[in-house]
Design a protein that fits this description.
With about 180 residues, the protein is mostly helical. It is built from nine helices and three strands; from the N terminus they run H-H-E-H-H-E-E-H-H-H-H-H. A hairpin with a 2-residue loop joins strand 2 (about 70-75) and strand 3. Keywords: DNA-binding, Transcription, Transcription regulation.
């Protein structure tokens, strides 16, 4: 494996731990992303010096996240794997997976808490009620924004991202009431 690829694979593995992803999973994803051809589990285990069982479990996780897929190779009955190479697709799939696992349960819990407060009425101070309602408004607004962004074509999103500082400077012309809380 070329040194530059090795360095990225190792660093991606380290970063995976910071993102809450198993190091082996992150290394395998990086290796497949940078590979010019599909690799078998055996190829991956040998290249990365990992146990075959670790590679198998990591491949299952990456398949679940839809960051890799199986591809047939003529004349070989073994499973071969390729990574998703479209960066927007990768980012979208990771965001969707994390949202489903982390954000959606939080949104549901906050909505349930507010509904419970509405049903109870007594025992909750006006300040706590106001904070819960602000929290609910915030998470539902962010959730709605996320849903809208899924429908925006990647090239449009990239233009928006590149315009970042210009958009922020335009916000100074919008009064605080118009920005929300």
């Amino acid at each position: 494996m070329p040194l530059a690829v090795e360095q990225i694979v190792l660093r991606w593995g380290d970063l995976g731990g910071q993102w809450g992803v198993n190091r082996s999973v992150a290394q395998i994803q990086a290796l497949l992303y940078l590979s010019e051809k599909p690799l078998t589990a055996e190829d991956i285990a040998t290249t990365l010096g990992l146990a075959r069982s670790n590679v198998s479990n990591s491949l299952k996780e990456l398949l679940t996240w839809k960051l890799i897929h199986r591809v047939p190779v003529l004349g070989d009955r073994r499973d071969h794997y390729e990574a998703e190479t479209d960066l927007w697709q990768m980012a979208t799939k990771v965001a969707q997976g994390r949202k489903a696992r982390e954000i959606d349960p939080m949104v549901a819990a906050i909505n349930d808490a507010v509904a419970s407060v509405d049903g109870q009425g007594a025992g909750i101070s006006p300040e706590v009620r106001a904070r819960l309602e602000r929290l609910q408004g915030f998470v539902n607004t962010v959730d709605g924004w996320y849903q809208q962004m899924l429908g925006v074509p990647p090239e449009t999103l990239m233009r928006l991202i590149r315009m970042g500082s210009k958009v922020v400077s335009l916000l100074k012309f919008v009064g605080p009431k118009d920005r929300g809380s």
